[in-house]
Amino acid sequence: MTNDLPIRFLPQQLPKIYAMLKAGVLSSNSLTRPSKLPAMPVRKDDHISPASDELIDAYSEWTGAPAARYRDTVPAHFCSHWAMPLLAELGRLAPYNLTTLLNQGVHMVMHQPIPRGMPMTLEGQLVEVKEVGNRLRIHMRIEASIEGLGRCLDIDSYAAVLLGPRDKNTTSERVEPAFEATGSWSVDAKDGLRFAFLTGDFNPIHTVPAVGRRTATGSCILHGFGQLAKTWETLLNAGWDIQELDIRWVKPLPMPSGEVSVDVSPSIDADGQHALRVVSDHGMHLVGRFAGTKAAGAQAAGSAS
Question: Which CATH code, of 3.40.640.10, 3.40.50.1820, 3.40.50.300, 3.10.129.10, is assigned to 1-164?
Fold first, then answer.
């Protein structure tokens, strides 16, 4: 992708921007947000029109995917575009101010490729909302289907709202498997805006330098789903396929960044999955695991910028 910002896609993002803004405004005001939790699980459905081929191509290029990979399909991680309005609608059913919501992790199961040019039906659920220590933990689920083809993708999204000061000791010791670098990627100072124009997520912490300078990193940070998308494509570029992925975000990535390494454990765990981590000079940003196999003879990929 060139250094230009893909501003031309802004009109396609307006419905998502409106949905996200509406959810944020309603949840931030005690008069308009719910006064108590509903009986769960709560179900909400949505019907999604297909994104334009030009938008999918530009998004895929930004992630580091070769042009031929998604000629007829949509990347699974493009759910950062089409799933977020429904997740926002589900999240605002909780009686809390969701403008402070933090994405913590996501679990994705791929059943079949998502074809281009076909509308999707989304079946969403607010599964659970519970207080754990100083946090409110929110679990939401979306099942995406294509009429006549069946279910394509399941997404379990986990988020949190801070109810008090951050815990100082939230990490626990664990035995790390051996990792091998499988590829890398990097971002520049404008990649938060690029991702926003491609997906509709204009959260100021990712896109407005004046807001970013007030964060602990001193700069705007890359969207969590931006990290996921580039990591996903780095794995595919190295010869891996992905049927299931379960990750959590552990540390913001400031922009610009140097090389961000995608590391995979050669061994598998008891569930047959490989451990995954994403690290840079700033620390570890993403951890998790995935189910997949590596093509015979595939070598570690180069960097994807």
Answer: 3.10.129.10
Taken as a whole, the chain contains a residue count of: 305
Place of tokens 């090389």: 259
Q: What is the pLDDT of residues 161-197, one digit of tens each?
A: 877 666 655 545 667 899 999 999 999 999 999 999 9
Q: Residue 235: what are its φ and ψ, rounded to 5°?
A: -65, -45
Select from 3.50.50.60, 3.40.50.1000, 3.10.129.10, 3.60.15.10 the CATH code of 177-297. Answer: 3.10.129.10
10 Å CB burial of residue 271 (0-12, 13-18, 19+) is exposed
- The answer to pTM > 0.90 is yes
107-to-141, 244, 247, 281, 295 alpha-carbon distances in Å: 9, 8, 6, 26, 23
Exposure class string for 188-224: b at 16+ Cβ within 10 A, else e: eeebbbbbbbbbbbbbeebbeeeebeeeeeebbbbbb
